[in-house]
Each structure stands twice: as C-alpha cells, then as structure tokens.
Amino acid sequence: MDDKIVEILKSGNYALVDVREEMELMMDGKIDEAIHIPSGQIVDREEEILAIEKPVILFCKSGGRAGNALAYLQSKGLKEGYNGLGYLDLKQVFENL
To answer: Tell me, what CATH number does 67's domain have?
Structure first.
C-alpha cells in the first residue's frame, strides 16, 4: 500500500469509494464508511464524486477497476484521487492504523 494513502487514512480526512459490484460486497464484506458506486455507474455518478472536497480513495477487489475509475475521474478534473487497490489490502491497513 502506498505510504501516501496510509498517511491520508491516518489523517481521517478522506472519502472511500468502493467500485465493486453488490454481489462482491455480500460475498467479501465491506468497509462501512465507504460510498458504494459500482464501476459501471462511475460515469453516471461522476458529479457526485467530483463534488467531494477531500482526498478520494477508490478501491475494488484487486485495484484494476479502481485504477480505471480513477483515470476516468482524473480526466474529468478529480484533483486528489488515489487507487486504494483491493478491499482486503485496504481492510488490512485499517486494522493496523
């Protein structure tokens, strides 16, 4: 996990966006504070994400979909966005904060 992401998580000033599908949340679990926006809805809900006024950390199962969503959102003007990689990676970071 990127040290910058860990630093942001420790600060408490961030928004988490989970881009996994609903079935993945039911199967693998979720992070309660995360906003759930499946990757297929990113384009339709981009304004919601772009309106967030703190660092945005996107994550999925392994980081691929989060990376694609991040690239798209950055192309639309997202200034402070990060790929939080996979759900299990992020969950482990939270457990060690």
So the answer is: 3.40.250.10
